[in-house]
């Protein structure tokens, strides 16, 4: 499956233990996101458009209103990096 460089960067950080915090508007739609790495840094490459694309492809998921994390499909889709092998 073709994954852009930005998608791969975000999935890689999520696979290492990062998460995406989301904020909803009154009607329930997601209006703002913040991608946080395992070390607590904010990843600026993760935009709302990229988030919606990852969610549509089912590479990320949320359970019971918790922050979004990488799914099994997302782990399989991301290529192995040196610190992930």
UniProtKB/TrEMBL annotation:
Belongs to the UPF0386 family. This is UPF0386 protein ROE7235_01927. InterPro entries: YjhX_toxin. Pfam families: YjhX_toxin. NCBIfam families: PRK13687.1. HAMAP family: UPF0386.
